[in-house]
Amino acid sequence: MDSVEIARFLTGMTLAVHIIFATIGVGMPLMFAIAEFLGIKKNDPSYTALAKRWSKGYTITVAVGVVTGTIIGLQLSLLWPTFMQMGGHVIALPLFMETFAFFFEAIFLSIYLYTWNRFKGKWTHVILSIPVIIGGSFSALFITSVNSFMNTPAGFQVKDGRMVNVEPWAAMFNASFLVRSFHVVATALMTMAFILAAVAAFKLLKNKVSKDAEYHKKALKVTMILGLVFTLGSMLAGDLSAKFLHKVQPEKLAAYEWHFDTGSKADLVFFGTLNEHTQQVTGAIKIPGLLSFLADDNINTKVKGLNDFPKADLPPLIVHYFFDLMVSLGVFCFIISAAYVATLIFKKLRRFMHAKPMLYGILLTGPAAMLAIEFGWFLTEMGRQPWIVRGYLKVKEAATQAGGLTFVTILFALLYIVLIVTSAYVLIRMFKNKPAYKDVAAVSKERGEQ
Amino acid sequence: MIFSYIGIIVLWLFLFCYIIIASIDFGAGFFALHAKITNQDKKLNHLISRYLNPVWEVTNVFFVFFFVGMVGFFPESALYFGTVLLVPASIALVLLSIRGAFYAFENYGQDSKLPWLVLYGLTGLFIPASLATAMTISEGGYITKHGSSFDLNWTELLLSPFSWSVVFLAIITVLYISSGFLTFYADRAKDTRAYKLLRYWFLFWGPPMIAISLFVFLSLRVQNETHFLSAVLNYWWLFLLSLICFIVAMLLTLLKKAHGWAFIMVIFQMGFAFFGYGASKLPYILYPQVQFEHAVVNDSMAMALTIAFICGLLLLIPSLILLLKLFVFDKEYVEGKKSQY
Q: Where would you find this protein in the cell (chain A) (predicted)?
């Protein structure tokens, strides 16, 4: 591998690790805020205990999220100095504001986590979660703005190879900013809901502490309803993204779908294998006209094909599989959560609510949603190749030339393995022999005293 | 060019804040480890975690803020520092990550483990050392250029007395600042045992720190004479003030009086030295490649950043005050009368 390949690999690895914890970071505060709110509103200590336990586990993931986030922040300058020299001139604003949002979140998160019993009014503590939620979501928005700038650059002119006449606000609110941020936040919330649901399903399946069953069923109900709502949001966001790509980045959409020849009634291709020389797709499920429909709500819409772009500017065609995986995992989560919610609505189905197949299905939604996030990011990042700033700067021109890259890559790989293994270990131990009913009892006792 | 001054002052301020609060954190980790090994942990650790648990994450943000601000205000320096610091900064990052993560594992997890405390305690001393490399490199003389590409000259860096004296200074300063703050915190907590131990450490680290700073001065003369002369001729009074603050802090601690003031004196001591160092270094960010007036971002972006910065501070300062109020100035919390969870 040459230095460009190593730099890409290291960046990809860091982001793949960070996105796990970042997703939890964006999704989790809303979850424990909702649980705490329900606890007060319904006057049910189970929900308060739920909020306490969730936020306790969150202290571990947030720590890893903070450190991996710091790593990627500095790695941008270390691995892509040319990009940052240029980027600093044009998109420093969202980067800067992301740090402020993160700062704000960090302060209030600390306050939230360590002041459970500090305030007299019962609502004060819940209200403290609002700045945490705002900080977390806004830092996701701003950082997505940086990434969307790389896809749809705006707010500058090029003169003699330099970027001039910079308009910071135009660069920040570039074309793909809104649609991507919406997708990022919606899928983060969806994933977090399913991960927590999967934990509850796991505990119910294992049924080690029978006294806890009621508690876990409550957790399941909250998270699955939220999961369905956020899945619908994510699907809407995904649909908007496809339409956006059709208009602005057609080569990306064409690569997702192995769509070679421009034409109307374009097929949606599902999995299959590709012969790159003959451009023949075999073994795929093709749905005629659906790609055109997705692009513009009309099966007669012309979708630009890959053959209409310069060959040197095409992304790797493997992105197709990531696209298929992302979509099918998302649909899987939708089916399971819709089935669960159906058992809530229709009395006749109620006996299936905690049936084993249902619980196993729910158990799978957590990992499925997280994998969908990973695949989605692989898809969008590889779909931008060979550009680092689409149309202006190529990846291979931006990579560092410094020595020691291989050494550093091995160092970080070891670090990530250690971090993932130990954080999983700590999280599992944290809840292994701590039955929830004891926490619920502790909460009721505190309330009794007040 | 007003923006280059705004930028450099903002960044220098944030770096200074980071140095103070990160030092408290880094040193505390070392003291916790030392106390554990010498079986004095019952004296100390509850006190340290009471302070650190709520603030460590915020500490980290100050650092992120500094390097993001650096890229924002001085993108030209991102090119140079980014390339040259690949290995030293990566090592610092790995250490920072181990420290942050294992701090959380050790303190929020089910049970604490000695190896984790070792990782967390020792990395705290290596981080300032590796971060200090950036300071050293900025004095010039460690970058080699081949045509259009450039890289760090490792032999030069590893054999230089200047770089080593900076490393030692960084480590000792960390222990000094940390014990200074924790003495104050222990005094407030009315925790006599912890107080005795920390006060002893504070007095112990003070004199060698001053000795090494003199050595750094002398070796700077060899490394970068322009900078040295500017510091000695134009800014000597800042360093004198710094020394006076040091003496006051030491005397107050010796007399067991006004520990709050003693720590404020420590902050001023560091502040005078740090700003004296920074001011005498101008106009270079990286000698001799990057001058801060030439490296500054375009005016429209600088304007936007300044506005964002002011709005951000309006949000941050009240929040930070709230944080301090709850965990440092709340007497009952500091004394351990209010539970953490």
A: Cell membrane
Cβ–Cβ of A111/B339 closer than 8 Å? Answer: no
Residue B109: the pLDDT is 65
Mean pLDDT for the stretch of residues A376-398: 82
Helix, strand or coil for residue A303? strand
A80-83 long-range CB contacts below 8 Å, 24 or more apart? A80/A7, A80/A11, A80/A388, A80/A398, A80/A399, A80/A400, A80/B82, A81/A398, A81/A400, A81/B78, A81/B79, A81/B80, A81/B82, A81/B83, A82/A393, A82/A397, A82/A398, A82/A399, A82/B79, A83/A388, A83/A389, A83/A393, A83/A398
Cβ–Cβ contact A96 with B under 8 A: yes
Largest CA distance in chain B: 65
Instruction: Looking at the complex, report in whole angstroms how far the Cα of residue B260 sits from the nearest Cα belonging to chain A.
Output: 23
- Hey, are the CB atoms on A114 and B327 less than 8 Å from each other? yes
> What is the rounded CA–CA span in Å between residue B183 and residue A193?
45
Residues 53-92 of chain B whose Cβ lies under 8 A from any Cβ of chain A: 53-55, 57-58, 60-61, 63-65, 67-69, 71-76, 78-87, 89-91
Q: Is the pLDDT reported for residue B250 higher than 80?
A: yes
A450 — pLDDT class (breaks 50, 70, 90): very low
Q: Point out which residues pair with B145 in neighbouring strands.
A: B150
Contacts of B69 in chain A (CB under 8 A): 96, 99
Mean residue pLDDT of chain A comes to 85
Q: For chain A, which residues make up each domain, given as ranges?
A: 3-249+310-447
User: Contacts of residue A432 in chain B, CB cutoff 8 Å?
Assistant: 110
The pairing of strands B149-152 and B143-146 is antiparallel
Share of chain A above pLDDT 90, in %: 27
A383 sits in which H/E element? none
The closest alpha carbon to A89, from B308, B286, B300, B85, belongs to B300
Q: Give B-chain residues touching A99 at CB under 8 angstroms.
A: 61, 64-65, 68-69
Q: Are A81 and B91 an interchain contact pair (Cβ–Cβ within 8 Å)?
A: no
Q: For the segment B121-149, what is each residue's pLDDT rounded down to a tens digit?
A: 888 888 888 888 888 887 777 777 776 67
Q: Is B297's Cβ below 8 Å from some Cβ in A?
A: yes
pLDDT interval class at B202 (50, 70, 90): confident
**Among B65, B108, B315, beta carbon nearest to A59:** B108
Q: pLDDT value at position B212?
A: 84
What pTM, to 2 d.p., does this model score?
0.87
The pLDDT, as a whole number, for residue A112 is 87
Distances (CA, A) of A155 to A148, B79, B279: 13, 22, 35
Is B67 exposed, middle or buried (CB count within 10 Å of its CB: 0-12, 13-18, 19+)? buried
